[in-house]
Specification:
This protein is of the alpha/beta class and 270 residues long. It is built from 9 helices and 11 strands. Helix 1 packs parallel to helix 6.
Length: 270
């Protein structure tokens, strides 16, 4: 079984190499990334990303959200989302890797206590933990140059926005599962659909790329429990430049055009 790097030599670059090696060698694994949104949902804090603004708890601030980014989690209404997401966070199993928030980034925005609590819930086997941003930020150029070419050689299954034009991409997508706005609440039923598809089509050694907000974490957790003979990766927005039809763009993508400099590598501790 593979393992991530461990302190004191734990780095995003070393963990990136582990992920790349598993993909190159055809070793099945799961990577579920819990970023700031998942941190808030797991802690029962209301999150609303709307046109022109975000609401986090009682705080509201300006944000230029695309229509694909619009979502709303209310702990009083969406308890099933919180419950399933928390189960995905506390789950531990061989080759089930969890990307977590780092203090150097997330604790600047939210309480360091929330980040600490997330790590406590996730468990302390650091060999199965990595950064939520392990495929983006400082590693994004390498992701596009080194991992995307590997993905292009594999049979892919994608959980992706309904507006994504997969035919215009260079990816070999065998089948796609489409999600709409606020999919972490509205499309939970897709989890059983994916598991049934795997069974009905005897899918083995497939690579499932999930780009479905917090629903990705739930899908990866339940599919890993259901069938470990495939790879399940929370790909987030990292492939958006290759998917016409998706308007969501991220700051880290500007590294590809040189509009921003190479981003700094994150650290594991304080």
């Amino acid at each position: 079984m593979a393992s991530m790097s461990t302190p004191p030599s734990k780095t995003p670059e070393a963990d990136f190499e582990v992920i790349k090696s598993m993909l190159s060698n055809g070793e099945n694994f799961s990577l579920s990334r819990f970023s700031d949104g998942e941190l808030l949902v797991c802690n029962g804090i209301e999150v609303a990303m709307q046109s022109g603004h975000n609401q986090i708890g009682e705080a509201t601030f300006h944000a230029d959200n695309s229509k694909d980014d619009i979502k709303h989690f209310d702990p009083k209404l969406h308890g099933e989302t919180q419950k399933r997401l928390h189960k995905a966070l506390v789950y531990n199993a061989p080759n089930y890797f969890k990307g977590l928030n780092c203090y150097c980034c997330t604790a600047r925005m939210w309480s360091p206590a929330l980040v600490t609590r997330e790590r406590q819930f996730a468990g302390f086997d650091v060999s199965r933990l990595t950064w939520a941003n392990v495929l983006i930020n400082s590693n994004y150029k390498r992701f596009m140059d080194e991992i995307v070419p590997i993905l292009k050689t594999r049979k892919l299954y994608m959980v992706v926005n309904e507006n994504a034009d997969l035919e215009a991409s260079e990816l070999n997508v065998e089948h796609s599962f489409r999600v709409g706005q606020n999919c972490m609440v509205n499309d939970i039923g897709l989890i059983d659909e994916i598991k049934s598809y795997i069974d009905d089509n005897n899918v083995v050694d497939g690579v499932f790329l999930c780009a479905a907000s917090s629903l990705s974490n739930m899908i990866i957790h339940e599919c890993h429990m259901h069938n470990t003979n495939n790879t399940y990766i929370d790909i987030g927005s990292s492939l958006n430049p290759l998917l016409p039809g998706i308007g969501s763009r991220r700051e880290y993508m500007k590294q590809l055009t040189g509009d921003i400099q190479q981003m700094e590598s994150c650290r594991w501790g304080w």
